[in-house]
Structures are given as C-alpha cells and as structure tokens.
Amino acid sequence: MHCGYSGIDQSLSLRLSFFTPTEKETFLEPFVLKNLLPSTLGSYYRYTGSLTTPPCSKVVEWIVFSRPIYVSYKQLEAFYSIFTTEQQDHVKSVEYLRSNFRPIQSLDHRLVYKSAVRDAWLPELSDHSGPLGTEASKVHMS
Which superkingdom does the taxonomy of this entry point to (predicted)? Predict the structure, then answer.
C-alpha cells in the first residue's frame, strides 16, 4: 500500500496497489483520506514516531485522536479481506495486520504537537501547520 501527497489540490490522497498471487499489480483510483473520517474529529496529537514492526524505523508521522474513531465489524472484515488470499483448499490471512503494536516507548526527545482551531491561537503561539483549519503547537511532555 502506498500513501502520497497530492500537490495539485493540497490534499492527502491514497493510491493503493496490491499484488495478486499471479504477481499482477492492481491500481485503484486515488481518493482523499480525510473523506474516510468523520466530519468532526476533535483534537489530536501528532509526532514523528516509528514503525510498529522490526526494524521499527523512525519514519512514521503518527496522528492520535483524543477520541477514538470507531469502525464496524463489517468495515474491519472488508479491510482484512483485501489482505487475504485463497490458496487451494484454505484461506491464508495476513496475520501481521492483527495485534501490530508494541509496548509504550520513551519520547526519545521527540516533539509532540496538539491541534487547535486556528482562530483560537494568537499568531505567535503556533508556528507549525496542521490539517486545514487547524494549527499545532508544541506539547511539553515529561
């Protein structure tokens, strides 16, 4: 799966490509990731972190919402089905998609940013841009 930034319309889009067992590549039309989320997200935290699986490289920009975004069982099963292959007389599921987390790690001098509605900040309080209509400010964590 590949995620990319679309500079044309200033939105984040997702281009998915999956390999079938015959090694043919399938491309889906790009779509705006934000359209998959509820219209009101509330506040969130953002930081540069690492992958959840070895080698746990620090290459991920994590966004953690203050309130959970729920998905239905049907939506979750549809997502898992994308990564499931049928092999002769059984179905093989990609198990690394389940329980792919690790224990809480130290901040390791990372900066954590908290979102806020843009109008709520004085200009000097936020120097980092966030998603449309918000700005992020540094959060002091111990």
Answer: Eukaryota
